[in-house]
């Protein structure tokens, strides 16, 4: 499938990356970036030797494709940044065939033959299949290793009122589907396969529900770890929101500073105030009504929220709100809105629960709080070390190749 030198390069990097992922649950940036650089260099050398510059162009196209795919997976919380960078290196190495893609978009090649003959698609399918099996095995290992915690979370989850209702609903629907399957079989004996398909639907519904329950118990019971605050690193996923005590001087300015830290954004103060006003309108009247608010009304809310938040206490905010003629119900709504947006007078939010993990500024603040003895421990979520599945998928790509040809 691949040049032997390409396979050796990818194999060596993925073995080292898998070991580090197992040991410290992350892949060092120097390794990921070196992989990307070496993959580009290898394709440049091959292009020169073969006098065929499609190799380097396909390599760069593979890097772009993996970068876009990695962004989606990273910001949706499926993978960490280290996993995405390793994937970019991998696709830079194997490339993305531009010629075949051009044939597809010009209509000279249909989608199914294109996908079934694309190395990048084969690698994605391999990663998905290997990742699913590997993830299941690793999860079972974690559940066995942390048996007491795992069973405790299962019990608490099943005791939850909403989960009880959901469980009864799932069992009832599954039971009804089974009855339909039996009725189909007895009243129409020729429809055996139809009855089987209907019964399989009931089994799938149960598998989905209990699979979700299993994943939830693994997440809460086996992947949450309490560590010292000074051991936190960029990209770590926090389980709970992290706060620090403060005495407010200007709530609006402090809220803007916190927003910039958490979102790594250089948002302009005017835009921030306008965003808050839009969110308040949506909170108060609902999203659809907020869309049809005219510009004048939006400006009124922007002025209101700006004036109310330029204060140092909840007491002063309520006084200002009364001067604006707001009723108690409106004031309570504003206070609830501020709480929902993590805007407080007595504390500052350092980290919200998000899918991308802690950024550099947040880690710096947490380390400062640890030094001042204001924050000792933080609960973080440890993900499953996923790079080994890349390694297995890459080996299968080289050894078996397009395995689906055996079934066609």
Strand-helix topology:
Layout: H1 4-24, H2 29-50, H3 54-75, H4 81-94, H5 98-105, H6 111-116, H7 119-145, H8 147-159, H9 161-187, H10 192-222, E1 224-228, E2 237-238, E3 242-245, H11 251-263, H12 269-285, H13 287-291, H14 295-309, H15 314-323, H16 328-340, E4 347-351, H17 360-371, E5 377-381, H18 387-399
Antiparallel strand pairs: 1-5, 2-5, 3-4
Put the structure in a nutshell.
A 3-stranded antiparallel sheet has the order 1-5-2. Helices cover 71% and strands 5% of the residues.
Can you put this structure into words, describing what you see?
With 408 residues, the chain is mainly alpha-helical. It has 3 domains: 4-140 and 386-406, Four Helix Bundle (Hemerythrin (Met), subunit A) (Up-down Bundle), CATH 1.20.120; 144-224; 269-342, no CATH class. 71% of the residues lie in helices and 5% in strands. The chain has 18 helices and 5 strands. It has helices at 4-24, 29-50, 54-75, 81-94, 98-105, 111-116, 119-145, 147-159, 161-187, 192-222, 251-263, 269-285, 287-291, 295-309, 314-323, 328-340, 360-371, 387-399; strands at residues 224-228, 237-238, 242-245, 347-351, 377-381. The strands form 2 sheets. A 3-stranded antiparallel sheet has the order 1-5-2. It has a two-stranded antiparallel ribbon with strand order 3-4. Helix 1 (4-24) packs antiparallel against helix 2 (29-50) and helix 2 runs parallel beside helix 4. The radius of gyration is 27 Å and the shape is globular. The model has no long low-confidence stretch (mean pLDDT 85).
């Amino acid at each position: 499938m691949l040049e032997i030198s390409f396979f050796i390069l990818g194999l060596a990097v993925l073995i080292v990356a898998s070991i580090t992922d197992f040991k410290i649950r992350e892949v060092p940036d120097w390794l990921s970036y070196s992989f990307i650089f070496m993959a580009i260099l290898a394709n440049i050398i091959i292009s020169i030797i073969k006098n065929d510059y499609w190799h380097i162009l396909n390599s760069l196209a593979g890097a772009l494709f993996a970068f876009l795919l990695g962004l989606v997976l990273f910001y949706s919380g499926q993978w960490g940044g280290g996993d995405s960078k390793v994937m970019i290196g991998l696709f830079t190495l194997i490339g993305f065939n531009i010629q075949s893609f051009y044939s597809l978009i010009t209509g000279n090649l249909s989608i199914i033959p294109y996908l079934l003959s694309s190395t990048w698609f084969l690698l994605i399918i391999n990663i998905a299949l290997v990742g699913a099996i590997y993830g299941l095995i690793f999860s079972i290992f974690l559940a066995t290793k942390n048996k007491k915690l795992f069973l405790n979370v299962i019990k608490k989850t099943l005791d939850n009122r909403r989960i009880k209702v959901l469980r009864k609903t799932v069992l009832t629907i599954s039971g009804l589907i089974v009855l339909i399957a039996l009725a189909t079989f007895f009243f129409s004996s020729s429809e055996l396969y139809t009855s089987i398909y209907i019964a399989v639907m009931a089994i799938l519904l149960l598998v989905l529900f209990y699979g979700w329950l299993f994943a939830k118990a693994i997440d809460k019971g086996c992947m949450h770890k309490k560590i010292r605050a000074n051991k936190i690193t960029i990209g770590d996923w926090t389980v709970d929101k992290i706060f620090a005590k403060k005495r407010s001087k200007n709530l609006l300015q402090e809220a803007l500073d916190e927003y910039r830290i958490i979102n790594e954004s250089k948002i302009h103060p005017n835009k921030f105030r306008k965003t808050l006003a839009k969110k308040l309108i949506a909170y108060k009247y609902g999203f659809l009504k907020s869309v049809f608010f005219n510009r004048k009304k939006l400006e009124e809310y922007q002025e209101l929220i700006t004036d109310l938040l330029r204060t140092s206490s909840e007491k002063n905010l309520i006084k200002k709100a009364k001067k604006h003629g707001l009723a108690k119900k409106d004031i309570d709504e504003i206070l609830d809105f501020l709480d929902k947006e993590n805007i407080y007078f007595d504390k500052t939010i350092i980290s919200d629960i998000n899918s991308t993990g802690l950024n550099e500024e947040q880690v710096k603040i947490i380390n400062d709080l640890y030094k001042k003895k204001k924050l000792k421990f933080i609960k973080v979520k440890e993900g499953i070390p996923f790079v080994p599945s890349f390694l297995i998928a890459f080996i299968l790509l080289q050894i078996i190749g397009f395995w689906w040809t055996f079934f066609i």
